[in-house]
Design brief:
Blueprint: H1 2-24, E1 35-39, E2 44-46, E3 52-57, E4 61-71, E5 84-86, E6 89-96, E7 104-114, E8 119-128, H2 146-176, H3 182-211, H4 221-229, H5 231-256, H6 262-281, H7 292-322, H8 327-357, H9 362-365, H10 367-411, H11 432-435, H12 458-486, H13 491-499, E9 503-504, E10 507-508, E11 511-518, E12 525-533, E13 538-547, E14 558-565, E15 570-574, E16 578-579, E17 584-591, E18 595-604, E19 610-619
Parallel strand pairs: 2-8
Antiparallel strand pairs: 1-3, 3-6, 4-7, 5-6, 7-8, 9-10, 11-12, 12-13, 13-17, 14-15, 14-18, 16-17, 18-19
Helix pairs in contact: 1-2, 1-12, 2-3, 2-6, 2-7, 2-12, 3-4, 3-5, 4-5, 5-6, 6-7, 7-8, 7-12, 8-10, 10-12
């Protein structure tokens, strides 16, 4: 039996380790702030040059030293002013542009930090006077460093696992009062040191994670200074200080061999746990969006309840191995603590789900909603296993009460009948041996203690141990999914961003399609970039640029562009683009029906060499 439990425990630890590595090495987490609108709008053509580039996000954002990079049509970076926030708008960032901008298309690459501590990056283009070909990349040149992101994510998951174990053991010892805390000393120290190391790693990697640079930049003075002056960095420093202070207090008490009163221990544990949990809730989802004070309170209670339940399970599992005979009182107290934790988890979880989703449709249409559904399924499984554990606990408690009652009845002596005395002539007293038999039991003294509770039934106890082990294993999965939710764009923000993605400041965005081609002749490879503006039903302008095999602009003797809608048997409609010095344009081209059109491009590079390529293009209403 013990070999089976040991095997299950090792399998659980191995699975948790593999999940940690995989999640740390996975793709970069989706940040929580989304671009709501921009001015100028993405893909717009302006008559005059703008004075600023302004970006508005779904939540407040922090700025980096290099948040905006603006490139001209020749891919030369412009010297811009210092980026800042719009007056009174922490969700709006802007950067001043040079006084005079030449005609052509400009590319803006941006990177900011959302209020919940995750970096956000993207890019947009705008044109002054007319749209021209640009050699600038349409994506930011600095996004994520894979090594930095993997290390940072692994440290985050380790910190979550460690804080759940540390706070759970502390709550278990303070409330459930096991006869001895010696079996829990090793896991508590391991959790404390792991949390301390993970917090230090997060503090060092914070600036490279925000900037998207290499982990080698973690020890630079500028990185450390930037981290220390930012809100996420300040919260990490506060967490580090709390851990060091808590460790110093525990070491001092152990050195003096003093035990504090139970009420004081409970109050100190609650205060320390709440302060430590607040360093998470004040830096993530709850710190931005709706009802921030209530959300931070709810997130703190949610983390505390999760730690008390899941971390307490690990403590209970280790306690059950050593204290079978004294396990029933501990089980009874843990059952009450677990019930209170589940109640808090349900109430705070419902509120946080409503706050993050915003609508029922977001449950299935967003990554946040689908991850939340997976967490709900895991929590349901956890509750079912917990119900089994509670059933075995009730059986053990009932058996212990029955055994105690039986033992108490056996301990009460039978009443000895009084010996009748016959008056005699002489007052000779009867001998003591005649009044009380030699083998008669000694009378029980008043106030004698009852015998200790007999050990619980072995079969039920082993079933309970297995159930608690399964509960802890499912709890690790719940904890991993919870951490995933903290690194996923909330459904409310995702829906809002999707609704404004196609329209920026009231101006529809252009549809850009790049089609590669190969004529089969020497030097006959390249690509054609087709811009359909605005990409909707009605009048559109069509611009086409041909790039050669070296990536530079290529002049071709003929280019034809047409559209066909096979589903409605419409087309082909010839755009009749004309060459305007290497840049092919049709100023007015009508698309009558929305749908997925087939774009057909014919490129001729000589009298004998030409090729026709196609690509789908979505046209909206």
């Amino acid at each position: 039996m013990r070999d089976g439990i040991r095997w299950l425990r090792r399998l659980t630890l191995l699975g948790a380790g593999l999940l940690l590595v995989l999640l740390g090495a996975a793709a970069p987490a989706t940040a929580h702030a989304a671009l709501r609108e921009s001015d100028p709008g993405d893909g717009t053509v302006l008559r005059t040059a703008p004075r600023h580039v302004t970006l508005t996000f779904t939540e407040s954002v922090g700025l980096l030293t290099d948040s905006f990079r603006v490139y001209d049509p020749e891919n030369h970076r412009l010297r811009t002013g210092t980026a800042d926030h719009a007056p009174g708008r922490s969700d709006t960032a802007r950067v001043p542009l040079p006084a005079k901008l030449a005609t052509g298309t400009y590319t803006v690459a941006w990177r900011v930090v959302s209020a919940d501590s995750h970096p956000v990056s993207g890019a947009l283009t705008f044109s002054v006077g007319k749209r021209t070909a640009t050699a600038a990349s349409p994506v930011p040149d600095e996004t994520e460093n894979p090594a930095t992101t993997a290390l940072y994510n692994m440290a985050r998951y380790l910190a979550y696992l460690a804080v759940a174990l540390l706070l759970g053991i502390a709550a278990f010892v303070a409330y459930c009062r096991p006869p001895t805390a010696a079996p829990l000393r090793t896991p508590a120290l391991a959790a404390a040191w792991t949390l301390l190391a993970a917090t230090a790693a997060l503090l060092l990697l914070r600036s490279p994670y925000e900037q998207g640079t290499s982990p080698a930049d973690a020890l630079s003075v500028s990185s450390l200074t930037h981290t220390a002056t930012s809100r996420p960095g300040a919260l990490l420093l506060a967490r580090l200080a709390l851990l060091l202070l808590g460790g110093a207090v525990v070491a001092l008490l152990r050195a003096r061999r003093r035990r504090l009163p139970r009420r004081f221990t409970l109050a100190a544990t609650a205060l320390f746990s709440t302060a430590l949990a607040a360093t998470w809730s004040a830096a993530e989802h709850a710190s931005a969006g709706l009802q921030v004070p209530l959300a931070i309170t709810s997130a703190t209670l949610h983390l505390l309840a999760m730690a008390a339940w899941l971390g307490g399970l690990v403590a209970l599992l280790r306690t059950l191995r050593r204290l079978e005979s004294a396990a029933v009182p501990v089980l009874t107290r843990f059952s009450r603590m677990a019930l209170a934790s589940v109640t808090v988890l349900v109430l705070t979880g419902v509120y946080q789900s409503w706050r993050g989703l915003g609508s029922w449709q977001a449950l299935t249409d967003t990554t946040y909603g689908r991850t939340l559904l997976a967490k709900l399924a895991a929590v349901t499984a956890l509750l079912l296993v917990a119900a089994c554990s509670r059933t075995w606990t009730n059986r053990l408690t009932g058996a212990a009460r029955a055994a105690r009652a039986e033992t108490g009845r056996a301990a009460v002596p039978a009443r000895t009948p009084e010996v009748a005395t016959v008056p005699a002539r002489g007052p000779e007293p009867a001998p003591a041996s005649a009044a009380v038999p030699a083998d008669a039991p000694e009378p029980a003294t008043a106030g004698a203690s009852l015998p200790p509770t007999p050990p619980p039934p072995a079969a039920t106890f082993h079933l309970l141990r297995r159930s608690v082990l399964a509960e802890a294993a499912v709890g690790v999965l719940v904890l991993v999914l919870t951490t995933l939710l903290t690194s996923t764009l909330p459904g409310r923000a995702a829906t809002e961003a999707a609704q404004t993605d196609t329209v920026t400041t009231g101006i529809p965005t252009a549809s850009v399609t790049t089609v590669p081609f190969d004529t089969g002749a020497a030097g006959g490879t390249g690509k054609v970039q087709i811009t359909l503006d605005p990409g909707r039903v009605g009048r559109n302008s069509v611009q086409a640029v041909v790039y050669g095999p070296d990536g530079g602009l290529a002049a071709v003797p003929e280019l034809r562009v047409s559209f066909t809608l096979p589903a409605q048997r419409v087309g082909p409609l010839d755009t009749k683009v004309t060459d305007r010095g290497g840049y092919w344009v049709a100023d007015s081209f009508a698309l009558p029906i929305p749908g997925t059109w087939t774009l057909k491009v014919t490129v001729r590079i000589s009298d004998l060499d030409q090729v026709t390529v196609t690509a789908p293009v979505r046209v909206t209403k």
